[in-house]
Write a sequence for this structure.
């Protein structure tokens, strides 16, 4: 039997459409990146989302969807006053608490630990938390003596009466950049590859340190490391040594 090219083309398109539709139904076909952390694959918490995989690009509402903690509650925990918690990203904490020393950084890691404490899920590292986060954990009945022991010396006192107002992440970033005119050549949570390059370290040298190709120099080093499963603290330490 002879099949002409038109029939073959129609058959191919039909197979392609049906295949994609089936893949979407089964969750195999993903057309865009989803803001969902990976799940524990074994053990007591199998099937639950892993706080360790929360990325700096996740908004408070993304975290609410995954872990069931109200976005407004997360904002309160980190002393942020906003009418739109869905506009606030985990990495924005690096700007909110940018006045802290490098050794007492509050950023995406603090969000991860807060979520772990709130949900009872495991998290390996010990991060700094603002006192407002501790207040929320206590009020919500999540606080334990074990947490108190783990966080000894890792709670930063903040005044809950002086919340940081965020109307939108863009506006907030502009305000902060205007207030930091002095350039300090030191890698912190919000330092970009472009910053380090401007300080005299070549892009190729940075790529050797991080172990992956830098596609966007305006991306923060922390976020890029998280996306590529590279330990940010080690990268930060090496680059800071080169900058000394």
């Amino acid at each position: 039997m002879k099949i002409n090219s038109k029939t073959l083309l129609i058959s191919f398109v039909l197979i392609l459409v049906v295949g994609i539709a089936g893949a979407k139904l089964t969750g195999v076909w993903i057309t865009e990146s989803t803001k969902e952390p990976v799940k524990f694959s074994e053990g007591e918490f199998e099937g639950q989302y892993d706080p360790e995989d929360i990325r700096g690009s996740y908004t408070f509402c993304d975290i609410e969807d995954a872990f069931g903690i109200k976005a407004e509650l997360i904002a309160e925990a980190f002393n942020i006053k906003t009418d739109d918690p869905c506009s606030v990203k985990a990495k924005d904490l690096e700007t909110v608490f940018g006045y802290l020393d490098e050794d007492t950084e509050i950023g995406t890691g603090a969000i991860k630990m807060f979520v772990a404490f709130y949900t009872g899920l495991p998290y390996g590292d010990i991060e700094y938390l603002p006192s407002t986060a501790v207040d929320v954990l206590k009020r919500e009945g999540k606080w334990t003596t074990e947490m108190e022991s783990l966080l000894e010396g890792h709670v930063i006192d903040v005044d809950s009466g002086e919340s940081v107002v965020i109307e939108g992440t863009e506006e907030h970033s502009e305000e902060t950049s205007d207030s930091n005119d002095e350039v300090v050549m030191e890698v912190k949570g919000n330092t970009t590859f472009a910053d380090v390059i401007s300080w005299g370290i070549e892009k190729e040298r940075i790529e050797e340190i991080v172990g992956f190709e830098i596609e966007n120099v305006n991306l923060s080093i922390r976020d890029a490391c998280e996306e590529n499963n590279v330990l940010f603290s080690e990268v930060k330490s090496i680059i800071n040594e080169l900058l000394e």
